[in-house]
Amino acid sequence: MKQSNLFAKIKKEPPKDATTISHKYLTQADFIEQTAAGVYSFLPLGWRVHKKIEEIIREEMNNIGGQEVYLPALVPKNLWEETGRWETIDPPLFKVRDRHEKEFGLASTHEEVITDLCRKRIKSYRDLPLYLYQIQDKFRNEMRPTGGLLRVREFIMKDLYSFHESQEDAMNYYDKVVKAYFKIFKRCGLPVVSLEADSGTIGGSLSHEFGVLSESGQDKILICKNCDFGANIEKTGEIKKCPRCKEKLEGKSSIESAHAFYLGDKYSKTLDLKFIGKDGKSYPVIMGCYGIGLGRLMATLVEVYHDEKGIIWPKTVAPFLVHLVQIENEKKIKENSEKIYLNLQKEGIEVLYDDREDKTAGEKFADADLIGIPIRIVVSAKILKQDNVEIKERDKKEFQLVKIKELDSYIRNNS
C-alpha cells in the first residue's frame, strides 16, 4: 500500500477527550474514528489489525473443534422473554420496533438464539458434544462508554457456545477453551492472568476472566504472587489472603479481555433444550459460553505496547510488517524505493510505502513512530550510495545499515 493512497489523515494532536493511551493513539493515527459516544468506525489501518486478531482467534477456535456460524443481531422479543432477560439483562437491551409493531432487541449476547437453534437440532446423545462460534456485532446499552474501544456500545465479539451431555465433559472442554485463550493472547503478544469472576447476567455457576494488568483497567483485581490465584474483587470481596496458599494478595487494575462461563443447564432448562441419553431417558443439555471482544483486545495491545511517540505493534497483529520511508524526492531515490517496494510485495511481505512528497523527513518519521509498524526501512541518497538502506525496528532505539540485496533475508529472519 502506498501511503499517498492510504485512507488516513494522521492528526498532529490526539483528541482532547481521550482518557486512555489507546484512545489517544488509535484516534490520532487514524486507526479509528468516533461516530457517536461508544460507537467507532474502523479505518483501513485499524481494520487490518482487527482482521489479524480475528484470524488468530478463528484458527484457535477451529483447533478445538469449533464450527463457525453467523447469528442475527436483531433478536425477537419472544426469545428474550423465554429466559426473562427482556427486562433484566444488564446493561439493558437496545430495543427497536418494526413497521408491524413487533419488538426486537439488538443482541448483546446470543444465548437465546444459539439455544433456540440447537433445540431444533439436538435430539440425541449422538448429537453431542457440539461447539459453535461466531464473530459478530454486539450492542451494549452502556450508560457511560469510556476509554475509546475499551468500553463501547457497538463492538465485534467472538462468542463460542458448547453443548454437552455431562458436567464432566463440559468442564473438560472448559479447560480446553481456557488453554486456547492463553494461546490466542500469546500469539497476539499479550500477557494475561486468569481470574475467578462474577457471572453477572450471563449466569452459570462458574466463570473466569482473562485480565491484562494495566493502570487504565477499570476492573479491580486481587492476585497472589506465590501461586496462580487471581480474582475480580466483585467475586471475592475485600479478602486479604489467598484462599489457596494464605499469602497476602496484591491489588491491581486490569482490563478484562475475555470471559469464560460454565452455564450448566441454566438456558437448556429454560428453553427446553434436551437430549435422549444412552439409557433412553431425557436430560437437559449442559452448556458453556466463551467470549472475546476484538476491539477491546486491540485497544489493550496499545495500552501495553506504546512509548511517548506512539504505538509499538507486535508483529503478529501489526497492520503491515514493514514501513518503507522515502525521505527525498530525487528521481534515483524514487526509482530505488519503488523497486524495493515491488520486491517486498513480490515476496509476500506486507509493506506500507511512504511515498508522500509533501512531507518532510521529520514528519514522516513522527508518523511512522505513531503508527507503530514493526520494521522501518529508510531510503535516502547518502546511504543509497553504498547500496544500503537504513533499518530500525520500532521497539529498538538503534538502527543498522543493510545491503539492498540482503533486505529480503533480513526481514524474513526478523519477522
UniProtKB/TrEMBL annotation:
<dbReference type="InterPro" id="IPR002314">
    <property type="entry name" value="aa-tRNA-synt_IIb"/>
</dbReference>
<keyword id="KW-0547">Nucleotide-binding</keyword>
<dbReference type="GO" id="GO:0004827">
    <property type="term" value="F:proline-tRNA ligase activity"/>
</dbReference>
<dbReference type="InterPro" id="IPR045864">
    <property type="entry name" value="aa-tRNA-synth_II/BPL/LPL"/>
</dbReference>
<keyword id="KW-0648">Protein biosynthesis</keyword>
<dbReference type="Pfam" id="PF03129">
    <property type="entry name" value="HGTP_anticodon"/>
</dbReference>
<dbReference type="InterPro" id="IPR004500">
    <property type="entry name" value="Pro-tRNA-synth_IIa_bac-type"/>
</dbReference>
<keyword id="KW-0030">Aminoacyl-tRNA synthetase</keyword>
<protein>
    <recommendedName>
        <fullName>Proline--tRNA ligase</fullName>
        <ecNumber>6.1.1.15</ecNumber>
    </recommendedName>
</protein>
<dbReference type="InterPro" id="IPR006195">
    <property type="entry name" value="aa-tRNA-synth_II"/>
</dbReference>
<dbReference type="GO" id="GO:0005524">
    <property type="term" value="F:ATP binding"/>
</dbReference>
<feature type="domain" description="Aminoacyl-transfer RNA synthetases class-II family profile">
    <location>
        <begin position="17"/>
        <end position="314"/>
    </location>
</feature>
<dbReference type="GO" id="GO:0006433">
    <property type="term" value="P:prolyl-tRNA aminoacylation"/>
</dbReference>
<dbReference type="InterPro" id="IPR004154">
    <property type="entry name" value="Anticodon-bd"/>
</dbReference>
<dbReference type="InterPro" id="IPR050062">
    <property type="entry name" value="Pro-tRNA_synthetase"/>
</dbReference>
<dbReference type="Pfam" id="PF00587">
    <property type="entry name" value="tRNA-synt_2b"/>
</dbReference>
<dbReference type="InterPro" id="IPR036621">
    <property type="entry name" value="Anticodon-bd_dom_sf"/>
</dbReference>
<comment type="subunit">
    <text>Homodimer.</text>
</comment>
<dbReference type="InterPro" id="IPR002316">
    <property type="entry name" value="Pro-tRNA-ligase_IIa"/>
</dbReference>
<dbReference type="InterPro" id="IPR044140">
    <property type="entry name" value="ProRS_anticodon_short"/>
</dbReference>
<dbReference type="GO" id="GO:0005829">
    <property type="term" value="C:cytosol"/>
</dbReference>
<dbReference type="InterPro" id="IPR033730">
    <property type="entry name" value="ProRS_core_prok"/>
</dbReference>
<keyword id="KW-0963">Cytoplasm</keyword>
<keyword id="KW-0067">ATP-binding</keyword>
<keyword id="KW-0436">Ligase</keyword>
